[in-house]
Amino acid sequence: MTSSLGGGKSVIIGDPHKIKSEDLFKAFGRFVDSLNGRYITAEDVNIRVPDMEIVAKETEYCTGVGSGSGDPSPLTALGVFHGIRAGLHFKRGSDELKGVRVGIQGCGNVGSYLAGYLAEQGAKLFVTDINAKRVENLVNKYQATAVPLSEVHSADIDVYAPCALGGILNSDTISNIKAKIIAGGANNQLLDETKHMKMLEDMGILYAPDYAINAAGVMNVYQELIGYDRQAVEMKAARIYKTLMTVFERSQSTGLSTIQTANEIAETKIQSGRNPNYLKSNLKSFAWYRKS
Question: CA-CA distance, 184 to 83, in Å (whole number)?
Fold first, then answer.
C-alpha cells in the first residue's frame, strides 16, 4: 500500500456494555477533530458502525461509517486469510487449505469473517472466545470445534490465528504451542518482541508480523479517503500474500527474525515516502468525498 497512513490507536477505557453513549462518542469525535487531521479514527475492538456514525457528527476525520466503507472487519480478515495462505506456502510448499487445522482465538468481527473464508476453502476450525455465544455461532455455522480459552494455543493445530487482544504470545503460552505457523489479526501479539520472537524461532514456528498480516484494515481506511472502491481494497488485501512471502524469504536469507525483517522493510518505505503535503492533499479529497 502507498499512503501516508499508519496504524495508530485511540482507546476509550471502560466496559463497552456499560459506558457507551451518544455523549461519549460525540466527546471523542470532538477530541479527534481537535487534532485537525493528524489522526483519523475508525472501528476497532468493541466499536461498531453505529458508534462511528455518532463520532462523525463531530468530525470529518472519521472513516468506516455507513456512507463510506462501513465495517472494515471483512477486509482485515481477508488480508489475514491471504497471510495464512502465504505462511502455508512458505512452510509447506502449498497454500492449499483443505484439511488444514486452524485455531482462531477471538470470534469477534475479524475472527468470525476469517472463519468464513477458511471454512469455504475446507479448513478445519478450532475456535475460542470469552463470549460463549460467538463460539456457538461458529460451531453451528461452520462445524467448528469449540476449544477452552486457556487451551487454544496448545491445541493440536497447524495454524494458530490470534484475533483478540495483544500479548498472547508470551513465556507461558509459547512453550506449549504445537502449531508451526502463527498468523492472526490481533495487534501486539508478542508480549516482548525480542524475547518471545526468539522463543518462536527456537521452536521452528513461523510468525507473520501482526501489522503486516492485518494491514488490510488500514488499506480499507485509506481507500475511503480517496474514494471507496471495494474491489480495489480486495486486490490490495490479496497482495498481503506477496508481502509476507517477501518477509519470510528475506528473513530466511538474512537470518533476521520475521519481525525484524518486517520492521526494516516498513522503515525503509516510511523514509522513502515522506511527503508533508501528501496527506494534506488527500484529506482535502476525503472531505469532498464525505460531503458528496
Answer: 8
Q: How far apart are CA 182 and CA 201, in angstroms?
A: 11
Domain range summary for the chain, segments of one domain joined by +: 9-67, 73-215+244-265
Rounded distance between C-alpha atoms, residue 135 and residue 30, angstroms: 36
Q: Exactly one of 9, 57, 198, 284 is catalytic; which is it?
A: 9
Angle at alpha carbon of residue 262, lines to 257 and 266, rounded to 5°: 150
DSSP 57: T
9 is annotated as an active-site residue: yes
Looking at domain 9-67, which of 3.40.50.10860, 1.20.140.20, 1.10.3470.10, 3.30.360.10 is its CATH number?
A: 3.40.50.10860
Over the stretch 68-116, which tens digit does the pLDDT of each residue have?
777 888 999 999 999 999 999 999 999 999 999 999 999 998 999 999 9
pTM of the model: 0.84
- The C-alpha atoms of residue 77 and residue 34 are separated, in whole angstroms, by 31
The answer to whether the beta carbons of residues 61 and 39 sit under 8 Å apart is: yes
Contact, 211 vs 236, CB < 8 A?
A: no
CA–CA distance, 187 with 216 (Å, rounded to integer)? 13
Over residues 188-247, the pLDDT tens digits come to 999 999 999 999 999 999 999 999 999 998 888 888 877 888 899 999 999 999 999 999
Its CATH class, for the domain covering 73-215+244-265, is alpha beta
**Sign of CA pseudo-dihedral 254, 260, 262, 268:** negative
User: Cell numbers 456499560 label which residue?
Assistant: 18
Taking only the tens place, the pLDDT of each residue in 277-287 is: 555 555 555 55
